[in-house]
Description:
The protein has 431 residues and is an alpha/beta fold. The chain has 14 helices and 16 strands. It has helices spanning 10-20, 34-51, 117-123, 185-198, 214-221, 223-227, 256-267, 276-279, 310-317, 329-333, 340-356, 358-362, 382-385, 398-406, and strands at 3-7, 66-72, 90-94, 103-108, 137-140, 158-162, 174-176, 181-183, 206-211, 235-241, 301-306, 367-371, 392-393, 396-397, 413-415, 426-430. Residues 1-38 and 52-58 have low confidence and may be disordered. One 2-acetamido-2-deoxy-beta-D-glucopyranose binds at residues 117, 176, 178-179. One 2-acetamido-2-deoxy-beta-D-glucopyranose (NAG) is lined by residues 117, 176, 178-179.
Amino acid sequence: MKxxxxxxxYVCCVVGIVLSTGSEHHASFEELNLxxxxxxxxxxxxxxxxxxxxxxxxxxxxxxxxxxxxxxxQRAASQGxxxxxxxxxxxxxxxxxxxxxxxxxIQLEGGGWCNxxxxxIYRKTTRRGSSNYMEKQIxxxxxxxxxxxxxxxxxxxxxxKLRYCDGASFSGDDENETAKLNFRGQRIWLAxxxxxxxxxxxxxxxxxxxxxxxGGLASILHCDEFRDLFPKTTKVxxxxxxxxxxxxxxxxxxxxxRNMFEGVVNLQEVKKNLPKTCVNYLDPTSCFFPQNLxxxxxxPLFLLNAxxxxxxxxxxxxxxxxxxxxxxxxxxxxxARCNSSQIQFLxxxxxxxxxxxxxxxxxxxxxxxxxxxxxxxxxxxxxxxxADDSPLIANKGIAESxxxxxxxxxxxxxxxxxxxxxxxxxxxxxx
Length: 431
Ligand SMILES: *[C@@H]1O[C@H](CO)[C@@H](O)[C@H](O)[C@H]1NC(C)=O
Ligand SMILES: *[C@@H]1O[C@H](CO)[C@@H](O)[C@H](O)[C@H]1NC(C)=O
């Protein structure tokens, strides 16, 4: 049976975001005119819909998830480790117990990037650029759940969600005083790790760094740094969910995502924090793309990704700027409405993804789950992580695959057959 998630009222919600908050924060946007503001809000709306559980109609049958409060990192201020707007960064921690008392799971939050002064100024008025706007508590589901029946291998670990408020995958380090912008992702990462060490992570005997989307990219960028925080006797691995952003051509032959990443890397001084093994022979923007990093990461890494990643289809392959006539609109909203040439384009994208992971997958310590779905972020959502009808490859779901790899139970290198062979997908379909 094909499970389809319907995001209700897609068009109305994006418009709704623009209309309903149009005047609210306007006073603080001296540097933006209204039209520019609406472009940013549109972008934010799309991101939220693709990345946020809240945008998906909840299943009423599920039990109420654990809610975990936000803690601000007080020590961060003296280290200049602040969000875009200068507020303190924060995290949510739920303590482990029993056999998980000395095991730590760190989940880096995702949420796109800001690549221009304008988009970063806009971000300051959202939870992705300021802790003033962060939820005071958030649900812990999927890999963060505290219930064995929802999260069999990690439920009793110490589980942390580190909030994302820098706009450069926790890896920039600069500021712009004129625009009152702080680009301190790398410092936030370091301050957070110090804080968690002091809360008991220093005694960890097992640790897993994870993250989805921009956070999945961050978990790749910081994977070896994370490993180096611990003694050799600690088992340390990294999981990147929907972080395999490809340096791919868009539908008009342009390089939409590359141009955006170039903006992020230059604006936020990311270069100095990128792996030296890469920047010694490639330009910094290329070194922000996982395909140029993953083969050289020393720490065991698991890549979980949809081969037809819904975010990349929307924002990298067929954004409005690359498809001004909207030929891709139907296909972007619902994979069933792609015509055969569009499917061919998407198959080619999948082939690029398979090529990108070739060397990476030769290493026995690495893990892989590439399913042929139109999804984005499958470890944080309960329905995709571990439920009766969760996505499978060769009869094995995502939670079991990640657990098998982390605990060295069996090798996991799961690559799905090409679309439309997989009937277990939870495809994102927008109305
Ligand atoms: C800092 O921001 C201002 C806009 O407020 C911009 O004109 C300037 O170019 C920025 N500086 C750098 C180095 O990006
Ligand atoms: C698919 O749609 C695109 C855009 O509308 C069009 O250019 C192309 O010819 C179509 N392909 C087929 C096989 O119908």
